[in-house]
Amino acid sequence: MRDAAAARGLDIEIRERPAANSLHEAASLLGIEPSSIVKTLVVKRSDDTYLFALVPGGRAISWPKLRTVVGVNRLRLPEPELALEATGYERGTIVPIGSTTDWPIFADESIVGQRIAMGAGAHGYSLFVDADSLIAAYDVTVADISVEEPPR
């Protein structure tokens, strides 16, 4: 992962962190706002290719918005084994940096200008990166692709 980041000129920080039972607990452990924790979701297209969707904590993919931006009418979350096969990472650790395939990346516009925490390729770690640097390094498509998660 560090080599993949360096190859794209990305400055990353990887921190060990204890397990958390919620978004708010994870944010507290990392000393950041929940919205600064960004989920990397692997999304499967109907042609069996994939893309990454970067969605901040407290928000969820808006399927209609993402389908419009991607220009397709069918997208879905793949089974865990397909996500692992497509990225080389287990769910909960997925990050576009160092993925076995450089799938296209779509990021929610709300992460622009932030330092974000993401999965780090292994359980018990978080990766910190400047969102704008990640967006530039990977030619990320930035758009409104999320909605507020309903209260639990």
Q: What does the model show?
A:
This protein has 152 residues and is α+β, with helices and mostly antiparallel strands. Helix content is 24%, strand content 30%. The protein has helices spanning 2-7, 23-30, 63-70, 80-87, 131-137; strands spanning 13-16, 38-45, 50-56, 59-61, 75-76, 105-108, 115-119, 125-130, 141-143, 146-148. The chain is globular and about 40 Å long. It starts with a helix and ends with a strand.
Secondary structure blueprint with pairings:
Elements: H1 2-7, E1 13-16, H2 23-30, E2 38-45, E3 50-56, E4 59-61, H3 63-70, E5 75-76, H4 80-87, E6 105-108, E7 115-119, E8 125-130, H5 131-137, E9 141-143, E10 146-148
Parallel strand pairs: 3-6, 6-9
Antiparallel strand pairs: 1-8, 2-3, 2-5, 4-10, 7-8
CA-atom Rg in angstroms: 14 Å
Number of helices: 5
Identify the overall geometry. globular
CATH class: Alpha Beta
For the sheet with most strands, the description reads: 5 strands, mixed
- Strand residue content: 25-35%
Instruction: Calculate the mean pLDDT score and round it.
Output: 95
In the predicted model, the low-confidence regions spanning at least 5 consecutive residues are: none
Helix content estimate:
10-25%
**What is CATH's topology name?**
YbaK protein
